[in-house]
Each structure stands twice: as structure tokens, then as C-alpha cells.
Specification:
The complex is a heterotrimer of chains A (about 100), B (about 200) and C (about 625). Chain A is mainly α. Chain A is built from 3 helices and no strands. Chain A is elongated. The model of chain A has no long low-confidence stretch (mean pLDDT about 85). Chain B has about 200 residues and is an all-alpha fold. The relative contact order of chain B is 0.06. In chain C, about 75% of the residues lie in helices and about 0% in strands. A two-stranded antiparallel ribbon of chain C has the order 1-2. The chains are: A mainly alpha (about 100), B mainly alpha (about 200), C mainly alpha (about 625). Chains A and B meet through helix 1, helix 2 and helix 3 of A and helix 1, helix 2, helix 3, helix 4 and helix 5 of B.
Chain lengths: ~100, ~200, ~625
Amino acid sequence: MITLNHYLIVSGALFALGLAGVVARRNIIIIYMCLEMMLSAANLTLVAFSRFHMVEGLPDYSAQALVFFTITVAAAEVAVGLAIIVALFRSKQSVEVEAVSKLQG
Amino acid sequence: MPILLFYFLAALTLGFGLMVVTARNPVTCALSLAMSFVGLAALFISLDAYFIGTIQILVYAGAVMVLFLFIIMLLDIQVESDKKPNLAAVIGGIVLAAVLAVQVATISSSLSLGDKTTSDVALTLQKVGTEMATGKGNLPTISNDLKAGTLPDAKLMGLTLFKQYGFHLQVIGLLLLVGTVGVVVLSKREKEVAR
Amino acid sequence: MPDQNSSSLPTLLLLLPLLSALAILLGNKVLKGACIALSVFSAAICFVVSFMMLGTENSTPLLLPFLEVGKIRLVIDALIDQQSRGMMFIVTSIGLLVHIFSLGYMKDDDGKVRFFGALSLFMFSMTGIVLAGNLVMMFIFWELVGLSSYLLIGHWFEKPSAAEASKKAFLVNRIGDFGFMIGILMLFMANHGDVSFIGLKEGFAEGPLHEMAKANTTFMMLAALGIFMGAVGKSAQFPLHVWLPDAMEGPTPVSALIHAATMVAAGVFMLVRCSFVIEASPDAATIVAWIGGLTALMAALMATQQNDIKRVLAYSTLSQLGYMVMAVGLLAMQVSGAHHEAGPGHPAMFHLYTHAFFKAMLFLGSGAIIYACHHEQDMWKMGGLMKHMPVTFATFAVGTAALMGVPGFSGFFSKETILGLGFEACRPLFWVGVTTAMLTAFYMTRMFVVTFFGKPRTDHAHHAVEAPIVMVLPLIVLAGLTLLSPIGPITRLLQAMVPNHAEEHPTVMIASISALLIGLVSGFVLYRGKDKDPLNIKLFANKFYFDEIYAVLVKVLQDGVAWVVTGIERIFVDGLVARLPAFIATRLGSAARVLTGGHLQAYTFMLGAGVLMVIYLVVFVLPHMGH
């Protein structure tokens, strides 16, 4: 049968994939997608725990409320982040991380 | 739920996730991410979180991914064609992911809840429904659903959000507003070059 | 527990001027002329509220819990008793009249909206001081009145002298406030964090402070002197008196309200509130009394040689404040260690009460004169104003009589009480007081004669006409209050702290009346019909060269300290603190530079590795270490 561990491992794997993507990719848009993936992985953990840690015979809806907020914040974050990317593209004509090298000493 | 269905959904999610990380064409990445999110939403629904699953499809697979695609098209980003991937970065990413996976596996194996199945922690809908119907602050729309044996997920979710997290909800609304203003400010083309 | 009724009036008193000040600050663009109406309106309501408060019971309502850390609890609360009710009435009545007077006086001023905003801010902070139920709250509002006084003195900031004067007032006050803060903190420590006036009073009666006063007299003296420092700064006592005369650079209504009647009296008010602290230390009491006496005498001497009509009044304010402070010290000396129950009243508060009305009136009168003479302040350029400004003349005469202490006028009674106290407690200070009284009569006669009698000496004075009704009305009201204030039923109604009449000493009576006569007659004889000052005493005219002495003192001290500090800096700060760590940091930095190559991906890798490290430590290592 499917246990909580199954869900946690799927979530962990998805998170690890996202982390690998963030580190390895050089296209900022894709890095952003990987970040979204990591957020969703965290959401999966929350939903899983909400189901398996019941409150009075019902799923723990506090956890799902948190997921709801996370999704909202993520949506806002994507909007702002993509706007930043557009601004970056305008000034550098590129969306690759190498383009952002102002900090390089 | 059938074991096979779970494995299918997990494979869908992770497989398309892998595509996101490895594909060279940004459009492929974005579409794979959308598919991955669809799988994830199905997993949510398998956990009785119908509302969150729907939101996941609507907001993520719908709105957010369209936004991504839109930006990719708008900026006309080409395939990372000639450049070879940064080898050091790729190795670093893989190492990190592997270590994280090991850690997650170790932690989840030590959880007391870990080997419970959904049937071990079955929802007692009718019981809760009857209790709620007799108790104080009864909401018939919810307790009737519960007594009928269905989980009124969206209703309960709404109840939680507005009863316990009303203030937080407003703050989030404010955040969205700020985000909207921020986006407008950021994407406004400056007329003159700032000195 | 405080009930709702007792806290509503003080809350209203505090909030109204604050809201008006805020509205003017934030909305002056929108409200424009309505700002002024708003400010005057809030002052009027405050006056009504404080009048209503005169009839209320004693109470200590809690207005706002402010800060709570462990056992330490700082609150905004009010202490409503006879003292605060009476003072509140003085503040709001004079405040209202000054608001009305300003309507006329500031009519043509460009910054009048700003002026009324600052006036409202001042009313708010002064209300806070008067209502304050504990020392910390008083200190907060203490600083706020300092700020509003700064804003109002510097109202005409384009004038360099006004800007300088406001800066001077602020800095000099800061010295005093620092002492005040130290005093508060010492009491805070000694009374285990309770600095409410009631708590302190109990502490002194039979608490930790009682023991402390017996066992550690030095500590007690320092605490009392610290508190006194606050009063020295705010009430402009020697040696911090230098700011008050300069503060006359501000608009005259401000001088009347802040620098004559209310804010400078806040020091005395606070000393009376904390009289138990000074009473606990006889040494401190002696110092307080002598500083008060010295200020009174010195300021009176300086006043005899000033030509600016407002400066004469400023020095006279200094002198009268010195009287009040002296009274606080004398009473503390008299009870020597025991506590004087505030029941019948405190001579200093009584003098404050009478002085507030007539001095505000004198200042407003001088404002009317200045206004009529087209902002001419030199009294040698006035003269013969009796004919042109009859109402101002009459009210000014009432004020002058009260200030000189003509029998039957309010100043006579309050001065008499202080002199009687001096006669009983400390004979030398009694004679200081009598001399000051004589000098007061002298310089007031001088000013009065030069301004109102004789012939007009300039065109401005010749063409002077009576001020408009909004300016004359407050004068008449204040003159009425001056005349009425010593009468028994009125004093009871206004909750003035009339002291119990001790036994009459014939010496006191004779001395004060003869001092008055000597001053009056010599002033009249000397100045009648003169166009120039027949006396010319440089020392007094130049205020005992205090400003110059301070300038030199600051320079010498500053240079000396700067030299030492430079040395310390070269060796310790530059060498050990700056250069050495800088060297180490440079080395470390170049080592760490390898890590931060500016590659975004390297950063993310390090971030991820850091997170994993934290997970490792928290989940896998810490549980095994017994956490």
C-alpha cells in the first residue's frame, strides 16, 4: 500500500531535482521554473502531512491553508521575478547567469 | 488508491521534472513543468486535497506557466545551442541533489507516521458529521455533506481560511497588490537614462 | 483599577492637541486656513475639558500600557490631583488666550500654519507633562516640549539669530535633560523599577528609598540633584539660564505661553511633584534653594540694564522662576528629611499660579506694543504709549503691579509666602529674596516709565494705535484673572495650591513693602522723562558675560578634550581598533575572495550546500548530543 513515506520520497526527489536544476542551469527563466518546482515539492509534503495527521477525523486544514498561501505568494513571486527578468533582458540582451556579473570582483 | 496509479503519477511528476532540468529548449522546459504540475495536482487529489489540487492546476499549470511561456516567447529566447553546459555546475547540482535525497530518505524512514497508509488513518466523515450537527456552531451545509459521506473539501478549506486565517488572507491580498504595483514599476520602460 | 469615567477627560486633553498637530502636519496642504481654526478650536475644547476636570476626584487613570518587559512596566497614565488640575487650568487657559492673541499677532506671517501646528504640538506635550503619572512618561513629554519650544523659537528661522537661539535653547536643555534622565534612572534602580509618583512617594515614606535616604546620603543627593538638573535646564536656572533670554527671538505669543507661563514653569512643577526626593536629602535641598536664590538675584540685576522690552521680561521671568525654585529648596530645608504633605499647598506652586497669569499678560502686552510699533522692541524707541494704547496701558499696569508685589495684587501674596518661608528656614536667602523684590520693583518701574510715559521718541511710537480686538481681548481676560486670582473663592475653584498661612512676621511684611517702595521710587525718579539710560553698568547689560565665559569655557575644554581624544584615537582607535582588524580582514578577505568569484551558480551551490549542512547538523547531529 501507499504510505506517507512514498509521498515524502516523491516530494524529496522533486525538491532535489529542482535544487539540481537551480545550481546547474544557466538560463534564469529555467532556474525560476526549478524554484517553482521546489516550492511545489514542499507543498506536497505539507498536503501529505495534512492528510496523515488528522484533526478530529478530518485532514488538518491548517496545513492546506499554508499551502494555499504558499501558492499565492509563489504566483506573486513569479510575476515580480519575470518582470525583473524582462528588465534584465532589456539591459543585457541575455537571460543567462553569466550576464549578471556586476558583483564579480 | 491503486498502487499502480500512484506510481504512474509519481513517475509523471518526477519524469517531467527531470525534463525541466535537462531539456535544452526553454519551451520544452515550460511545457514539461506544466505536465509535472498536473501530476502533482493528481497526487494532491489522491490525498483528499481536492481544493488544493484544483488550485494547483488553475494557478500553476494554468496562470503561472502561461506567464512563463509568454515571457519566453516575448524575449524570443533561443535554445542554449552552442554553449556546453557548465560541467562544474552540473556536477555540483547532482551532488547536492543526491545528498538531499539521502537526507530525506533517512529522515522519512525514521518518522513514526511514516509507514501509515491512508486506510490506517481513514477519515471518519459520518461520525464527524453527526458530532458537528449536534454541536455548537453547526454549519448544515458542511455537516450534511459529511453525514452523506462526502468530504466537502472546498467548504472546509474556506471555513479554515476565513475563520482562522482571515487576517493572513488580507495580508496576502496586500502582498499581491504590492506585487502588481512592483511589476508595473519594473516593466515600465524608462524614458530617459538615469544618471 | 481605573474606571472609564476618570480616564476619558485626560485622554481627551491629550489626544485633541495631538490630533490637531497631526492634522496640521499631514494635511496643511488640504486644510489651508482651516488649520488655524482647528488649532484654536482644539485649544478651546481643551480649556473646557480642563475646566470640567477642576471638579473631578483625585484619580490615577491608566491611559495606555506602553512597554512591559518582565517586571518593569512603563505606562502612559495620569495622576489627577489638586496640583495637576490647577496646573492644567493654567496651561489650557493661557494656551487658549495665546492662541486667540496669535490670530492677530501672526496674521501677516507666511508661516502661520506651521506656527499653529507647533503650538498644538506644544499644548499636547505640556498636557502630557502636567498629567504624567510617572517619571518616564514625564520625561517623554519633557523632551517633546523641548522639541516644540525649539520649533517655536526658531519660527523665523531665516533670521540667523532666531536659528541660533533655537539651537542654543535645545542644546542647553539637553544638558539639563541628561541630568534628569540620570536622576530618573537612579530612582528607577533604587525603587525597583517603579517610577510612578505615587510609588515613589510610598517608597520614600516606608519603602526601599526610605532606607536608602538614611543609609546612602550621597546617592540620594546625586539622584535629587539629577532630577533638579532637569528643572535647571527647563526652568532656566543658573548656570543653564543662558537660553531663556535668547529664546525671546521667537514670536511674542510663544514667549508668553512657553517662556513665561507654562514650559519654563514645568521645571518647578516637576520639582514640586518630586519634592519628596529633594526633601529626602538636606544637602540637595540647600543647593536647590541657593541656586534658586542666586538665579533670582542675578537675573534681577541683569534685567535692570536691558533695553529690549521682551528681554526685560525674560530676565524677570528668570528671576521669578528662581523664586519658585528657591521656595522648593527652602521648604525642603525646613522639613529637613520629613515629607511635607502637599495638602494645603506649596508656596512655589502658588507663586507659579499667580505668576503664570500676570507674566503671560505682560508678555502679551509687550507683544501688543511691539505689534503697534511695527516690530520695534527697543523700549528707548517707544515712549508716551499711554495715550495711544490705553487698554494695553491699563492691563500692563495691572501686570506690573502684580509682578512688583503691590499689596492687594496677586504677586504680593505669593511672594510674601516665599519670603516668609525664607525668613523661617534660611535668613541669608530671605535677604536675597528681599533684594530681588526691590530690584524687581526697580526694573519694572523703569520699563513702565520708559515705555508708557514721556514723549514718543520715534515715528513708530508716535503713530502707534491700539491693537485689534483679538489681541486686546486676551489682555483684558488675563488682567481680570490676575486681579481675581488671589481671591479666596477663585483660588479654591481653580484648585490653586494656596499655602497655609503661617504666622505673620512683621519683619517680612515691612521688608517687602519697603523694598517695593525703594525700587518704585528710585526707578521713577531716575527714569522719569529721560531719553537715554542714565545708568550704564556694562556688567549687568552684558549679562555678567555669561555667554562669553561659556564660549571660552567650551573652547578651552573642547580643545583640551580634543587633544587627549586625538592621542587616544591615534594609538588605540587607529592602531589597535582600526588598523589591526583591517589588516586581518584584508588577509581573510583575499582568502575568501576565491570563494566569491561572482558566479551566480557558485553562489547557489554554496547556498544549497549550506542548507544541507544545516539540515545535517539539526537533524542528525544535535539529537545525539542530548538536545
